[in-house]
Write a structure and sequence with these properties.
Distance between the termini: 30 Å
Number of helices: 1
Largest sheet: 4 strands, antiparallel
Strand content: over 45%
Radius of gyration: 12 Å
Helix content: 10-25%
Shape: globular
Structural class: alpha+beta
Number of strands: 7
Length: about 90
């Protein structure tokens, strides 16, 4: 198991972890539910708000993942890591 490049928490036991080739969204009491999105499948990453931010990930299939009540530095770190990994993979617009 490789360590994540960065990870952050959101409201309701949601954790997002950015790895070299994927983004993992964990939810549930002990992180039982794991959704994996390939870096190549991430269409856009947006941040809304200043204090309790909402990080929105959009996949190529049109699915939206909203992570509410994140700290702004955590949301910025996740967004920057995803954009950096997309550039390394050569799929960033």
């Amino acid at each position: 198991m490789e360590p994540p490049i960065t990870q952050a928490t959101a409201h309701g036991n949601n954790v997002v972890g950015v790895f070299a080739d994927r983004v993992e969204l964990r939810s549930g009491w002990q992180g039982q539910q794991v959704e994996t999105i390939s870096i190549k499948d991430v269409a856009s990453v947006r941040i809304q708000g200043w204090v309790n931010c909402t990080l929105t990930l959009e996949s190529n299939t049109g699915r939206l993942y909203n992570l509410d009540r994140m700290a702004l530095p955590d949301a910025r770190g996740v967004k920057a890591a995803i954009e950096r990994q997309k550039q390394k993979a050569g799929v960033y617009d």
